[in-house]
Amino acid sequence: MRDEEKYTNTEEQLLYLQKLLDEEDTAALNELFNELDILAIARTLESFPAKTRDRLWEYIPETMLGEVLAEVDEDIRADYIEDLTASDVEQIVKGLDAQEVAEVLDVADEEIKTTVYASLDQEIRAQVENLYTYEEDMVGRYMDPETVNVKQGVSLEAVQRYIRIHHLLDDESQQVMITDKDKRLLGTLTLIDLVKQPQESTVDAFMDDAPYTLNDQMKVSDAAALLRSKELPFVPVCNSEGLLVGQLNAADVLEITQDDADMTLKHMSGVSDEEEVFTPILRSAKSRGIWLGINLLTAFLAAFVIGQFEEVLDQIVALAILMPVVASMGGIAGSQTLTVVIRGLALGQIAGNNKQWLYNKELWVGMLNGLVWALVVGGISYLWFSDPLITLVITLAIFINMSLANVSGVLIPLVLKRLQIDPALSGAVILTTVTDVVGFLSFLGLATLIIL
């Protein structure tokens, strides 16, 4: 690649790729894709629409195709697998680990799955089938089932020799697990101790006999939060009987965190998990349309509330002009709180007594901001309409709605969490309904009582 054409960031990379595609510079495209790693190729593919992406697939080295396919968004993977035969998929998954095979086959139809299963190495097949026994949000589905484990009582020298002979260590290996004959976890040994300590010593002498472990049935979001809080790059995964079933590495935790963040962001906007930037038009429209329909129903609810005050609106035009201000201020205040609380829930920071502290804090924040901005809006309203009664009505309505909006921003996600409903998925819709209804009800209700 010529020096002047080298890129230093993603935007330059995309522009350079588009230039090569326009020029049909096959040699440069092959060179570029040979320089990129798996993750970079996957992110590059996700940055183009389907037709361009199909052209780029041709330049991915065959040895990397399976790993790239396991890394890209599920939507893209499904589109690619749809056009492949069972024989094609067999070639793609050859050499992949169990996690990657599970990712690829997850979007294949049952006939292809059955055929490919039969071609897998027996150990890999067993690991893949075990991964599929877990729900998608469990630690067991994300863990790496391949672990480096040895029996207690063996020497460090023997462990090193065993690892070298069987080529067990890879970039993600963090520790050696010590197990009994039933594969029950007894402890862990760091690679540093394995190399540094006297080689005639046994693993029992230097192992951590009380390692931090995760249960395979635990939710991945909770596990990621625990690992981040404890700054652990690696954790063994055990089942309810204490048997070692896998491990979570730093890369797994990063994937969990990123997936959780992506899902939360999409859910807060009413977008499905599968949609990505270049999802086809009809598929995107369908996934978003459902939540637009739900939002329409809540809008009609707010409209119904307004309709109950038709008499006061007919008499005072200024109320109709100022009404959106009340709903908007409450909506923004509530959304700020909702975002903070959902993030806190995702990080595992909200539990027990701190819920009450959070509730009180947001109530006071809402009242303080409500008072300040109620006075500001009230002042503007007085300058605009020169009517002290209208000024009083909108000042009180802003204060009430912003205070209750902050409280709702706390209560709604906590209640949804208790009901085992993702707060990010429906919290924003419910909050919008609450702030609109409370805003219109307080504003028009106060106007009816004070002005009429």
TrEMBL record:
Residues 207-263 form the CBS domain. It is a multi-pass membrane protein. The keyword Metal-binding applies. SUPFAM superfamilies: CBS-domain pair, MgtE membrane domain-like, MgtE N-terminal domain-like. It is found in: Cell membrane; Membrane. The chain crosses the membrane at residues 290-309, 315-342, 363-384, 390-416, 428-451. SMART domains: MgtE_N. Its main location: membrane. Keywords: CBS domain, Cell membrane, Magnesium, Membrane, Metal-binding, Transmembrane, Transmembrane helix, Transport. Coiled coil: none annotated. Pfam families: CBS, MgtE, MgtE_N. InterPro entries: CBS_dom, CBS_dom_sf, Mg_transptr_MgtE_intracell_dom, MgtE_N_sf, MgtE_transporter, SLC41_membr_dom, SLC41_membr_dom_sf. It comes from the Bacteria. Homodimer. PANTHER family: MAGNESIUM TRANSPORTER MGTE, SLC41A_MGTE INTEGRAL MEMBRANE DOMAIN-CONTAINING PROTEIN. Belongs to the SLC41A transporter family. Acts as a magnesium transporter. This is Magnesium transporter MgtE. It comes from Vreelandella lutescens.
